[in-house]
Design brief:
The complex is a heterodimer of chains A (210) and B (482). With 210 residues, chain A is an all-alpha fold. Chain A has one domain. Chain A is globular. The N and C termini of chain A lie far apart (53 Å). With 482 residues, chain B is mainly α. Chain B is 76% helix and 0% strand. In chain B, helix 11 packs antiparallel against helix 14. Classes of the chains: A mainly alpha (210), B mainly alpha (482). Chains A and B meet through helix 5, helix 6 and helix 7 of A and helix 6, helix 7 and helix 10 of B.
Amino acid sequence: MENVLSILFCLTLLYLVITARLKTYVGILRAQGILLSVIIIFPFLRHLSVHILIIPLMSLIVKAVIIPRFINKIIIDLDVKRIIEPNIQPFNFLLLSVASMSVIFIMSHVLSGYTPIETIPFASAFSAIVIGLLLIIFREKLIVHVVGFLILENGIFLFGTSIAAEMPTIVELGALLDILVVVFLMGIAVNKISSTFTEQKVTVLGGLKD
Amino acid sequence: MEILIPLAILPVAGFIACYFVHNRKAQYIISLSAAVVHLACSYLIFAEIIIPAESDLFRFDALSRLFLLILSHVYFWILLVSYSYLNRPAMVKEEKSKKFFFAMLNIYLLANTLALISNHLGIFWVASEMTTLSVAPLIYYYRDKESLEAMWKYLFLVSVGIAFAFIGFLFLALSAGKTVLEGQQLLVSLFTLHAKQLNPIWLKASFIFVFVGLSTKIGIAPMHTGDIDATSNSPSPIAALMAGSLRGTALLGVLRVYQIMAPTSTAAFARSIMIIGGLVSLFAAFVFMFKVNNYKRMIAYSSVEHLGLITLGIGTGGIAFFGAMLHTVFNSLTKVVLFLNAGNIHKAYRSREIDSVWNVLQNMPWTGWLFMLGFFAVIAMPPFGIFFSELMILQGLLSRPLLLAAVLFLLFFIFVGMSRNVFRMLYSNSPNNHAAAIDDKFEITHFTSLVLLILLVILGITMPPQLHSVITQISKDFGILL
């Protein structure tokens, strides 16, 4: 079941790569938030308790409700053109993403021979990290960079669950809170940038250099 | 656990108080008293007069004690000068930033303290992300285009970097597969104890991710750009705070992972990565020292140089490791002096360009002389402390003549580039021959600089036995016999 959910997670990544609408990005973030919450709750389905439910519930609220809402609000407030402007041909971007995903899956399969990792969740997590980075590199809009960062964080989240590294509840909650505040600050910054600079593209941020 | 009351609960209380109290003087007094208590506690812990009980999550080994004292000490002086800094005549835009200045500083203290005393790498991660969050609004203090760009770049780059460090910590958990550590918490003390059983390949991968990720915060080239932008565009107390303590906090994360690797066969790998990182940083500082025309950026590049030297020293091992630890202490003090006086120059000349600053020595004698002494301290002129620590690092490099030659070459030209800029600011005549009307009274920043410079000389020459024994203990913890 975990594998099925991880593959669904991978499909959202592929959708992310081919879509050109900002609204879809927000939808994907929401879907990934729900998927991740289900994935972490899954091993504990047999013996549920309030204590175990805290983390999935919090991550559901943060990743599937608060953050997508906040990003939606920024998009509406700023009246960002809803179509993203890629600086790479969409087909090439898809090709690049699929190629890197295949490499990651093959690598993970090889690695699973040496170390106890679950191939599919591990590879899906790593794909998300790489695609988050690719989004940051190949897109110009700052708000898309924030989305890329969130995809990367989602990947790390899944990664953490796939290798069963247990963190104390306080650390997990702290991590969630940190991400929430980061996104909040980035959102404010994007807002300010759009009122200070004419556009909210990374290309306008070239003032500081030697 | 009681020790957390002065170290962590007090800053939280300070934050809450500063949030609700709007009188700036009251905020200052509250924060300053928290800083004084923190400093006293850190010193008592450092000198082992108080020996706090260790728990799974927090520990007070020699490394934590040293870095905690550095943080607390730098923070105290910065807080001391902050009030007069905020009272300077300023643009309208800044007034808004002043309201939460002290509140954010309290959060900064809390986050750094938690990161430094954490034994759990997860807590370290959460706390070091928190340090970024607390410092980001402070970078945006001036509320202009440049500071906005600097804040965005710092926030984004460092957040991605810290995400990378988290991947590194997860790799560390992976390396414990099929050993007694499998499924255990990521406790540094536990992992160091059983380090020899860990899987070397994952351990190496972990170090690369942690080092590259935290480099964005330490300021190791080529990941140093966000850090340079942030330190050069933030107000000078914040820049001093970042250069003096925040970089150290991030360095501690790398040191923790290195500590786990030290007894294993992968230590050599980690050491060569650190040597490469250090060399690249020195090279970057060397190139940009000739290119910069902004004196705050110049000091920021000097930070890149010194953190590069420190990682180089750690990578070299032996006496160089000892020197590197000492260098961390001295570098943090020197950077405070330089940034505070650079802030005074900025206030008087209203520009950060080297070309639009002239004859500082005559126009502002206090600031000028202290800036010059700070410059002498940072380029390792005796009798200032950095001379002695740098000598130790170079002594450790004696067995690697090629590396030593490269380091000396780079250091010499960094010295040439930096002194060219500094002396132009201090001595050159005004371009249109009118004396600037700048009043330079002796104020608290000068007092702070003076005290820190005297401290640098005393620490360098006498080398207090407590400092010596703590650094010897750190070396022992890293398996280095002196």
